[in-house]
Amino acid sequence: MPSDSRGEDAVNPRRGKAFRPSLEPLEAKLLLNGARAAHGPREAAEVATDGELAVSARRPRFTFVRITNPTPFNTKLVPPFKQTMVQSRPPVAGQTYNLLFVSMRNSTRTTFRASDRLIVSVTGQPRNFPILSGSDEWKPGEVRVFYVVSKQYYPLRPVTSAGFQFRVEDSTGTAIPGPSGIFLRVKYNPATIAKVVNQVVAFGPGSKGRSLGLPDTSIWEFTPASVSNVPL
């Protein structure tokens, strides 16, 4: 598998600032002792030097961000999409549900395979779901869709920070669907749900803002951590 370059070892200097997911990129945060990060595993070593504690930590390779600086390229959503339903309890055919979703774009130069063990989950739910299996690949520039169906209008709590949680190698982040990621009253049919999701993500009410210059809160991407991202 091709590999991206890693960032330089560093300690996050913004330790004392409040973390506001709705306003900041989902970059990794360090605990006070630097031994581990709030967003994904890091390899950290503590070395005593001249009576002081020196901490070194390796930065995650990827950063997960909502696309707030749209271009014709990074917000282009062309179905059909490869999809993952992220829930343990299967919906019942014939029942009506609300759809909650995000799209995630691979904005790296890396092609991921099942052996890379990419996973996704939902805040508050214990189960992780593999994103890739068999010979499936997630290629650079490819957009995938992740969704849940629920009787609730917006099943995630807290609404400002809960969402779809991704792990790509040593990097993790949470993609918050927001109001653009909601579509109501879908009659569930396992034979047609993929077509419905394709239509909703690409052409549904939440997508209209893209053509009007308004935010689409449901479109996300992950990039190399060294790439500068516009704050959310």
The biggest sheet, with number of strands, parallel, antiparallel or mixed sense and barrel status, is: 6 strands, mixed
Q: Order of SSEs, N→C? A: EEEEEEEEEEEEEHHE
* Structure class: mainly beta
Instruction: Tell me the strand percentage band.
Output: 25-35%
Shape: globular
- Mean pLDDT across the residues is 79
Poorly predicted residue ranges:
1-56
What Rg do the Cα atoms give? 19 Å
Helicity, as a percent range: under 10%
Distance between the termini: 31 Å
Number of helices: 2
Number of strand elements:
14
Describe this structure in words.
This protein has 232 residues and is mainly beta. Helix content is 7%, strand content 31%. The protein is built from 2 helices and 14 strands. Strands 3, 4, 5, 10, 13 and 14 form a 6-stranded mixed sheet that branches. Strands 8-7-11-12 form a 4-stranded antiparallel sheet, with no helix packed on it. Strands 1-2 form a two-stranded antiparallel sheet. It is globular and about 45 Å long. It starts with 43 loop residues before the first strand and ends in an 8-residue tail after the last strand.
Summarize the structure.
Helices cover 7% and strands 31% of the residues.
Question: What are the key terms here?
Answer:
2 helices, mainly beta, 232 residues, 7% helix, single chain, four-stranded antiparallel sheet
Secondary-structure topology with pairs:
Layout: E1 44-49, E2 52-57, E3 62-66, E4 82-85, E5 96-106, E6 112-113, E7 119-122, E8 129-130, E9 137-138, E10 143-150, E11 164-168, E12 171-175, E13 182-187, H1 193-203, H2 208-212, E14 219-224
Parallel strand pairs: 4-10, 5-14
Antiparallel strand pairs: 1-2, 3-14, 5-10, 5-13, 6-9, 7-8, 7-11, 11-12
